[in-house]
């Protein structure tokens, strides 16, 4: 993969930061995008830091254009930016729903739309970071799950559209990963319950998911890893 060019969204922490580091270590030229652009400097190396709000179509276009202008193209895109504000439907603050839909679903669509011409030109690979919540619905995770089910449906549809043109489309569905996303759960009781569940097992690390990304994008061009379901050994559902 040495010399390839990648864009990673949501790269200021967690899976995105780990993926940006792993790609850079593998010799990939990396553009890292996030709203918290100051934290991107912590990635080190020759990573191009880009201010990117995936919920804003123009911000997505501008970040992609900046990456292409700086590096000359794109070979790999990892759509990782995401938020989770789970809770019961009854009495929910629907502003949290809108934030999840805007970030997890529309953000993935906006970035994909902006990068696709460049990936088609270079027969690149796009990786969508989904979730086990995109396969299995669970109580108090309805809207978050809806966004991830949507990402999975969009990803498979896109794959069917572009696979014969040489573009590989990958969905990675991690289970419980130790990242900042748990702190975003708005319902205090649910947040405590989730944190206790996380403490009860050896969860995935962001680096574990990054390794799955590298495995998928590092295959020969004729090999397409379309889907990876990744869970901690102790996670049942």
From TrEMBL:
Lineage: Bacteria, Bacillati, Actinomycetota, Actinomycetes, Pseudonocardiales
Family named by the database record: Belongs to the short-chain dehydrogenases/reductases (SDR) family.
Listed name of the protein: NADP-dependent 3-hydroxy acid dehydrogenase YdfG
Lineage: superkingdom: Bacteria
Pfam families given in the database record: adh_short (PF00106)
Limits of the Ketoreductase domain: 4-179
TM ranges: none
Keywords: Oxidoreductase
Gene Ontology MF term list: oxidoreductase activity, acting on the CH-OH group of donors, NAD or NADP as acceptor
């Amino acid at each position: 993969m040495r010399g390839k060019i990648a864009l990673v969204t949501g790269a200021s922490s967690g899976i995105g930061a780990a993926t940006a580091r792993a790609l850079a270590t593998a010799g990939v030229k990396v553009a890292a995008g996030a709203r918290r652009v100051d934290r991107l400097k912590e990635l080190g190396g020759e990573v191009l830091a880009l201010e990117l709000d995936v919920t804003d179509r123009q911000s997505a276009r501008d970040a992609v254009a900046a990456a292409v202008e700086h590096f000359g193209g794109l070979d790999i895109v990892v759509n990782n930016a995401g938020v989770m504000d789970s809770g019961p439907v009854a009495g929910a603050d629907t502003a949290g729903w809108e934030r999840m839909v805007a970030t997890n679903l529309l953000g993935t669509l906006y970035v994909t739309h902006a990068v696709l011409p460049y990936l088609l030109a270079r027969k690149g690979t796009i990786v969508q970071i989904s979730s086990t919540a995109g396969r299995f619905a669970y109580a108090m995770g309805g809207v978050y799950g809806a966004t991830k089910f949507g990402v999975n449906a969009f990803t498979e549809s896109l794959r069917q559209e572009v696979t014969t043109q040489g573009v590989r489309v990958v969905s990675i569905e991690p289970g419980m990963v130790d990242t900042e996303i748990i702190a975003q759960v708005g319902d205090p009781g649910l947040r405590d319950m989730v944190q206790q569940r996380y403490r009860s097992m050896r969860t995935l690390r962001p680096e574990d998911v990054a390794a799955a990304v590298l495995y998928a994008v590092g295959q020969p061009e004729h090999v397409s890893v379309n889907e990876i379901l990744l869970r901690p050994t102790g996670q049942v559902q």
